[in-house]
Amino acid sequence: MTLIEHLPVLVITIPILASLLILVAGWWDRRFCYPISLVTILSQFGAAVIILAQVMREGPIRYHLGGWAPPLGIELAIDSFNGFVLVTILLLAAATAVYARRSVEHEIGPEKTVSFYVLFQLLVTGLVGMTITGDIFNLYVFLEISSIAAYTLIASARKPRSYLASFNYLILGSIAGGFILIGTGNLYAATGALNMLDMARLLPASFELATVHAGFLFLVIGYSIKAAFFPLHIWLPDAYAESPSAVTILISTVMSKVSVYALLRIIFTIFTTAYIIDVFPVTGFILFIATVAMIAGAVLAIAQSDLKRMLAYSSVSQIGYIMFALGVANQVALEGGILHILGHAVMKGCLFMVAGLIIYRVGTSRLSDLEGIAKVMPISCAAFALAGASMIGIPPTIGFMSKYYLVLGALEAGHWAYAAILLLGSLLAVGYIWRFIEIAYFRGNRDGGHRARTLEAPASMLAPMVVLALLCLFLGIFVEGLMEIVGPAAALLLGGA
Amino acid sequence: MRKNVIIKTISRLSVPFIQVFALYVIVHGALGAGGGFQGGVVFAASFILMIIAFGLTCVRQRFSYRWIVALSALGITIYATIGLLCLIPGGSYLGYGSIETALGVPHLHGYLIDAVEVGIGITVMATMTSIIYDMSDRGGESS
Amino acid sequence: MKLKALLAVLFLGIILFWAVGDLPAFGDPEAPATQYTGELYIRSVLPDIGIENIVTAILASYRGFDTLGEVVVIFTAGISVALLLRRGGRL
Amino acid sequence: MIEPLYELFFARYNYWMAIILMLIGLYALIAKQNLVKKLIGLNIFQTAIFLFYISLGEVRGGTAPIYLPEGVDALYVNPLPHVLILTAIVVGVSVTAVGLSLIVRIHEEYGVIDEADLVQELRRR
């Protein structure tokens, strides 16, 4: 009983200890690393499900670390919104962990396995910490844990270009970290509090101060860099394309989602809708940038000649959809946005897994080299088609449901033009998804000879991919059950505290 | 490496003082200016001085990678385990007060803070040294 | 590159200059941060914890979780450097 | 006329110093071609932020936040920014360490650490 009570903190600290165990056990024998990592992440996932169930049953959990109540101490605050995000990210992390073993053997090399798994574990833990903390400075600390682990994991591909991609990400990520620190400092100067709910309580008194506006801008810009929101996405394509497959999956699905989560949390919980609509009206601007991001990301994705790079630009476009919900800022649109956090994580995870499998088997992800690949990798390409359908928004997939709610919300708020642009963005998604489908299924008849044998990857890599592909479908069909969590989460964001 | 008697002698003399000072800074954290980070960094500075004066190979013979990595893990383990121990008497994580009341020892809270600071100091010292080892291993010698 | 840098600097500068006017003056004892949490910590460390150094008390006890995170940050950096630079060995 | 100027510039000179340093750091971070100089810019930028935080906690006439012996009536500065910055310093050190080791690897792979040269190298390959 008491253990359940302490679950929010154990879900962070036990993995920290587990990462030390991976280090020590890996010193002894490298084969211990992977099982420990897998078991830890799976049990984290189990704990997250229990936490979410408890939140839905008994309301928000507030765990005071050290027994010190908020203005003095740090608290972990879990409500339906971040409980949902927590389960989402750990679901994807667990899928990635299952997938990682063969991919790591193939891409990292044996002498770096131990440190790879230690950092992998720390990255997941940092992201979990970011998700459930209720203190704005603690958020920064966990952000930096995950960022430093991510910089190195990107470079762990040990290709010359991956070092450059990692360095560029490090520079931009540090600028983002600096901005977040300045923004936090400005808010701290205005209120004296660091706890999010405490800050939300004190902030309305000083809404008119330029300090608060500056703090808002810095926090939003900083987290937008981390989330790769459109004009600030320049680090993303290289980082995604040059890192090892397992890392690409993790950072593209989990890390960008947690940054978006942090953005939503800061804007809606600390500043509240009253601030972004009446005091410092930015919703219109965010909506505009979000639609530009959708279109520009999709167009850039169509222009790519490499599968991983194409999917990376597609992420830029999809982050635009989530930010679209932020710009509309009403109940229905936010439901769509939160649903898209899960939906995009699942489908982009599946698509990058397919790309990773292709690299594992074929050794390249250049689209021109993949003609007729569907004949030798039928399961992977079918999974790509299913997840791609979800990306486009074909019913009854999860991608359709989230876009449906987004459009509905936009119409409700009277943004007819923006709703039309959103649909146009979906059409552009057909462009890049269809390109791969066409190359994989309908080309390459002329030299089918040398690929007679099936090249399907090992089961431990196929299984998580198939599960995610099926989830794209089933989450869409059984969306009613999800709405019972997403609905209250959206209401909670709009209601302020 | 060129023999340089003055540098070697001076570092041989000053390293113990630096290390004692580092320990003082760590342990003195609860009473005055000081703490685990500062002390850990000062301690690591003594290793850096040794590496500059005697060369990496000489230092590494005495403190191998293995020890350094084990120490950096040990520091976090001390910290996190003290945090977990606080759960046993029913307190929350890192709530040292619960152990103090459970055992009935006065000022235990302060001593636990000292223990935590020692953990921080060990990790910071070991990690800084490990980073210096890795960085000075590169360059001139090979490749 | 220079132009981009100048634009970024200009942008950052304008926001910061704009914010300065509303920040508390240097050393102002009436500043919200000092009045609210600062005073609270100074008053409660001695009865709550009983050690002299207020910074250490906050660091290790009130905000101990931040410090745990910070130790993990430096550990992460150590492992990162080992992954990037170390030749051979077990790591 | 003098009063608002005094209020903006001299009563808040600490922020101006921090802002100037931040801008210098950010400029170096983006404009410098040499990767090591970029990291130096990053360090200046971060240190400026630390200065900003620490000066937020200053109280006129206050002493360091370590309790003086009983009976001495003392005014202490705000301890919280010190704690936060202790954390942020460690983060800055860690990022610098990772950045430097990346530069070492880039130098080993390409033989140059200047962006213009790197672009040339990438084109050549």
Described by strand count, sense and barrel closure, the largest sheet of chain D is: none
| CATH topology description of chain D | Helix Hairpins
Considering residues with a beta carbon less than 8 A from a beta carbon on another chain, report the largest interface and each chain's count.
C-D, 49 and 52 residues
Binned, the helix content of chain C reads over 70%
- Roughly what is the average pLDDT of chain C, rounded to an integer? 86
Task: Note the run of SSEs of chain C as H and E.
Answer: HHHH
- General shape of chain D: elongated
| CATH-defined architecture of chain D | Orthogonal Bundle
The description of the largest β-sheet of chain C is:
none
Describe this structure in words.
- The complex is a heterotetramer of chains A (497), B (143), C (91) and D (125).
- Chain A has 497 residues and is an all-alpha fold.
- Chain A has one domain.
- Chain A is built from 20 helices and two strands.
- Chain B has 143 residues and is an all-alpha fold.
- Chain B is built from six helices and no strands.
- In chain B, helix 1 runs antiparallel to helix 2 and helix 2 crosses helix 3.
- The two termini of chain B are 18 Å apart.
- The mean pLDDT of chain B is 85.
- Chain D is mostly helical and 125 residues long.
- Chain D is built from five helices and no strands.
- Chain D starts with a helix and ends with a helix.
- The mean pLDDT of chain D is 87.
- At the A-D interface, helix 6 and helix 7 of A face helix 2, helix 3 and helix 4 of D.
List the helices and strands and how they pair.
The complex is a heterotetramer of chains A (497), B (143), C (91) and D (125).
Chain A: H1 2-5, H2 7-28, H3 33-58, E1 61-64, E2 75-78, H4 80-107, H5 113-132, H6 136-155, H7 160-191, H8 196-202, H9 210-227, H10 236-242, H11 245-279, H12 283-302, H13 307-328, H14 331-362, H15 373-376, H16 378-392, H17 398-412, H18 416-442, H19 459-477, H20 479-494
Helix pairs in contact in A: 2-3, 2-5, 3-4, 3-5, 4-5, 4-11, 4-14, 4-19, 4-20, 5-6, 5-11, 6-7, 6-11, 7-9, 7-10, 8-11, 9-11, 10-11, 10-13, 11-13, 11-14, 12-13, 12-18, 13-14, 13-17, 13-18, 14-16, 14-17, 14-19, 14-20, 16-18, 16-19, 17-18, 17-19
Chain B: H1 5-27, H2 36-54, H3 56-62, H4 65-85, H5 96-103, H6 108-137
Helix pairs in contact in B: 1-2, 2-3, 2-6, 4-6, 5-6
Chain D: H1 2-10, H2 13-31, H3 35-56, H4 80-110, H5 115-124
